[in-house]
Every structure is written in C-alpha cells, then in structure tokens.
Design brief:
four-stranded mixed β-sheet; 4 strands
C-alpha cells in the first residue's frame, strides 16, 4: 500500500486531497516537524530534503508535493488536463512561485523574531505573494478552473496554499482575489477536501511553537552560514 508521509501544512494537504479524490488506498504516516521527525535517518532516506510530503509507492519514492501530484495523476490517469504545456506551466508556477513566496510571507509575518527589524523582508514577500495571487485571479476571471474545463491537479496544488490567504496576507485579503476565492470555496466544499483537512486530526501533533519547535522548524536561527 502507498505510504503517505505528511503533516497538516499546505503542501501535504493538497496531496491528501488528490488521494481522497482518486480513492487511492494509502497509509498515512505522520511526520511531526515541530518535534524534528523530518530529520530522522529513516525519513531522510525517503526525502533527503527533510520536508513533507513524500510518498513510497511500493518502493517508488517521490517527494515534493507538486511532483507527487503529477506522478499520481499520470499513474492513475485522473485529474490530468489534456493540455500538457498549460498544465506544466501553471503547476510549476505554483511550485516555484506561489508556494515558496507564500511560505516566506507566513514566516516573516508570524514567526520571524520580533526583536529584529524584518521590514524589508516582510514587505518583499507580502508584495510578491500578492503579485502571484493577482496573476492567478486574472487568469481565473473568465474560466472556472486553472487549466481547461475540468478540475485538475493544478487546482489542487493551488488550493493547498490559497485556502490560507488570510493567514498570509491578512483577514481581508480574499477580497482582492474574488476569482481565487471562488475556486477555493468550490474545492473546499468537496467531501474529499473535508477528509483531506481532517486527516491530521486522526493523529497527535505537537501544537506548541516553543523553543524546541522553532529549533526544528527554523534551523537557520541557530546556525550561521555566512
């Protein structure tokens, strides 16, 4: 059975969405990143980058959420748009733009040390995250889904991060991206999305963002490279 290494953060949740939508049997294996379980030697054999998610599909290892979505879509033939060029363009846009900039926006808004001046970094990542969502909103203005006329892995990839827009950009941010909000609401209303979000509740994860958690989540805070 496929093993799915996950926690409740955006990237694993979008893979959980695909697994639930496709009805694929899987074993969920929790990786508590606040406890540092991503650095365990056995897990580093699965994902040397020490991130979640990852899958072990009968000995085939895939890590990075967007790579997993593409692998599973190609394997099953489900949620795969016919226009491969457009599929790859938007999937990589999410992978290289939306996800990384969203993550940095969250970090500097919520987790960077408050006793240091992060105005430049905070503004940069807020600006870039907003810019990416404006592009997405314009793309979705005259279309229901990201690629073609059908719900696909690109929508799933976007949903994982886009449902967290208020946490990244402020409580009123969705008002700036009504077309993104429409797609997020549509996907979130699907039963598979509810199951994907609830998956984490079947396990106990460390809730506190204490010194141990910060040391495991943000190792750069204790290690200088240059």
């Amino acid at each position: 059975m496929l093993k799915f290494y996950f926690n409740g953060s955006p990237n694993p949740t979008k893979v959980a969405l695909f697994l639930e939508e496709a009805g694929l049997p899987y074993e969920a294996v929790k990786i508590d990143t606040r406890k540092g379980e991503q650095f365990a030697p056995d897990y580093l054999k699965i994902n040397p980058n020490a991130k979640v998610p990852a899958i072990d599909d009968g000995g085939t290892i895939v890590f990075d959420s967007n790579a997993i979505l593409l692998y599973l879509a190609e394997k099953t033939g489900k949620f795969l748009p016919a226009n491969r060029a457009e599929l790859l363009s938007w999937l990589m846009f999410v992978a290289s733009g939306v996800g990384p900039y969203s993550g940095q926006a969250v970090h500097f808004k919520h987790f960077a040390p408050k006793d240091q001046n992060h105005d430049y970094a905070h503004n940069r990542y807020q600006y870039e995250t907003d810019r990416h969502y404006k592009i997405l909103d314009g793309h979705l203005k005259d279309r229901r889904y990201m690629v073609g006329d059908a719900y696909s892995i690109v929508d799933m990839a976007l949903w994982g991060w886009a449902r967290m827009v208020p946490f990244k950009l402020g409580d009123d941010a969705f008002a700036r991206y009504p077309n993104v909000k429409r797609l997020v609401d549509e996907i979130s209303a699907r039963p598979a999305a509810a199951r994907a979000i609830a998956l984490k509740d079947k396990f106990t994860f460390k809730a506190e963002m204490d010194d141990e958690a910060r040391a495991n989540m943000f190792r750069h805070m204790t290690t200088k490279v240059a």
